[in-house]
Amino acid sequence: MEDEAKKEFLEGVVGRINATSLGKNRYECTVHFRLPYVEDRLVKATGIGAKKTSRFTVEDGRDSATVPLVFTPVKRRRRKQS
Q1: CB 27 within 8 A of CB 19
Q2: Which one-letter DSSP state was computed for residue 44?
Q3: Is pTM beyond 0.90 here?
């Protein structure tokens, strides 16, 4: 995908992103989606006539996901001065 197409897709799916600092090198990132995508489920229909057809429904999930982030500092080598 081209960068512009990726951007359009994400703008249509993601409502907002919140990042919170939890201390030294620790953060929490929450992504809020426009629709309830997180942990949604595909449920097969049951009851009369369900065996004759393969009917499924989507059970809504949540509209946000929270992920903890930990960044480890990278040690950089010093350049030798000549």
Answers
A1: yes
A2: E
A3: no
Residues near 7 by beta carbon (within 8 Å), at least 6 away in sequence: none
Q: Is 80 inside a domain boundary?
A: no
Please, what's the b/e burial string for 58-76 (b: 16 or more CB within 10 A of its CB; e: otherwise)? eeeeeebeeeeeeeeeeee
Q: Are 65 and 38 in contact, with CB atoms under 8 Å apart?
A: yes
Q: Is residue 79 a part of any domain in this protein?
A: no
- Domain span at residue 13? 3-70
- Per residue in 24-35, pLDDT tens? 899 999 999 998
Residue 52 lies in a domain: yes
